[in-house]
Amino acid sequence: MPGLLQSLQETLGNDATPTAIQALSMKNLFRDRVEGERYKEFLLASETGSGKSIAYFLPMLQDLKRTEHEQSDAVSQHSTPRPLNPRALVLAPTHELTRQLASFAKNLSHVIKLRVMCASKANTTSTAKFSGTASKMKEKFEEAGTVSDGAFVISKSSRGSRPVDLLVGTPMKLLEMERGRGWNWEERARERAMRIGKVKSEDVKDADEGSKEASREFWVDEPEMGLENVQWVVVDEADVLFDPDFQESTRMLLGDIAAARGSPVPVIPSSALSSTPDSEATTTISYPFNFLLTSATIPTSLATYLSNYHPSLTRLASPRLHHLPPTLRTEHTSWTGGNKNADIERRIRRVWAEDALVHSKTATGSGPVKLSKLLVFCNKRSKVEQLAAFLDGRGIKCVALTGGAETRKRGSNHHLDGFLKTGGPVLTGPGVCDPAQTPHVLVTTSLLSRGLDFSPMIKHVFIVDEPRNMIDFLHRAGRAGRAGEAGKVVVFGRAKGRGSGRTEDVKEKVRAVAG
């Protein structure tokens, strides 16, 4: 498709060549579906930074454009009277990733004129500030739609606008949009009450009607989204969205889509997924839409689930799956035995000293040294906050980001400005190159280790806590060395004494995935 190719060239350049997973996608996913043929079911698995998002966006966007006219009548006849009736959904585990994916999809589709929206973003144009009484301001917001939890909620008056082709969001946010905000509030309140010991499990349904807990009213807002028109569903970072923390909401949403399209699938209890099912009794799941999964790793749990319930799904895997990108070097550095935070600071300053040395040898002018930005992964939120506070006190301005951080802004990724890869202009101005004024270090947990495409300025990833497992390590380390860029992952550990044995085990495992 010429328009899609034009956008791809504008994004990657004219000399870009397909990666292994992209070549596999082109060979298998661009084939038109013939009448009577089952929907596509594929797993795209390859190492971090190999362009998996392009591998699924291109065939999906091309098909959406090719079929938009033949589906327009069906959309008008069978759609629910709801503001949004998307034809494709992309699911991702974090709001940061959904925003980046939606932005990338918009870049790819701007020539072919498909409408892309993000459920984790305001999706509104800038307008003048409202003025007047509170009631008048309320009326204006109701006319335009509201922003709730960082997501644009379309009001009744805005129905009838051009349909959405692709919607990107987290499973829980999309469930909220299609079932109605608050659909699970009562269940969550009961769970919370039982967890804190206010209500015994046998008394939940028979609580005193006069009590505060029993008198609380629950309500569900009107659903914003219909699912009848969904032709494509992509589960990005499938190893996360099908792990115990996410799989229930992911499968629930997929089941709702199937039911809305007139082909309900069996609901498998979560407890049954961890056991080995009877091969004769196992009911396979066949969704009535194109079903794509992508992942940089295939843990045993995901492989077992797909084998049991999606045996016809085709797995496309690159040769370097479960390995680090070839351009990413590894380094092991030892704690000195003193202050670990001070050890991390010294290693950061060593990176910048190397930048200054390179600058002195290659710079033609007297401009400021362009210092690298660094990504530091910790295992616990408390460690993130402690390390960031220490570095700030030493004149190294940081961004500390955890799941509950106040700096995690709603509706945008501006809290990661300067760290994420964007198509916009590079930050300029006084103090941009000064790490005491502009953050050059991002300290976080595994929250930001999945799928995000970071700026080429991030060439170093520090792993300061022992990786929980090698899957976690691959995702964290893979934030650098992406798309052929050079990078280095620095792993901290004990050289001797207590804990040194575990450090040697980590070294051995890292060598295995770096080969």
From TrEMBL:
<dbReference type="GO" id="GO:0003676">
    <property type="term" value="F:nucleic acid binding"/>
</dbReference>
<feature type="domain" description="Helicase ATP-binding">
    <location>
        <begin position="33"/>
        <end position="316"/>
    </location>
</feature>
<dbReference type="InterPro" id="IPR001650">
    <property type="entry name" value="Helicase_C-like"/>
</dbReference>
<keyword id="KW-0347">Helicase</keyword>
<dbReference type="Pfam" id="PF00270">
    <property type="entry name" value="DEAD"/>
</dbReference>
<dbReference type="InterPro" id="IPR027417">
    <property type="entry name" value="P-loop_NTPase"/>
</dbReference>
<dbReference type="GO" id="GO:0016787">
    <property type="term" value="F:hydrolase activity"/>
</dbReference>
<dbReference type="GO" id="GO:0003724">
    <property type="term" value="F:RNA helicase activity"/>
</dbReference>
<keyword id="KW-0378">Hydrolase</keyword>
<dbReference type="InterPro" id="IPR014001">
    <property type="entry name" value="Helicase_ATP-bd"/>
</dbReference>
<dbReference type="InterPro" id="IPR011545">
    <property type="entry name" value="DEAD/DEAH_box_helicase_dom"/>
</dbReference>
<dbReference type="GO" id="GO:0005524">
    <property type="term" value="F:ATP binding"/>
</dbReference>
<dbReference type="Pfam" id="PF00271">
    <property type="entry name" value="Helicase_C"/>
</dbReference>
<keyword id="KW-0547">Nucleotide-binding</keyword>
<feature type="domain" description="Helicase C-terminal">
    <location>
        <begin position="343"/>
        <end position="515"/>
    </location>
</feature>
<protein>
    <recommendedName>
        <fullName>RNA helicase</fullName>
        <ecNumber>3.6.4.13</ecNumber>
    </recommendedName>
</protein>
<keyword id="KW-0067">ATP-binding</keyword>
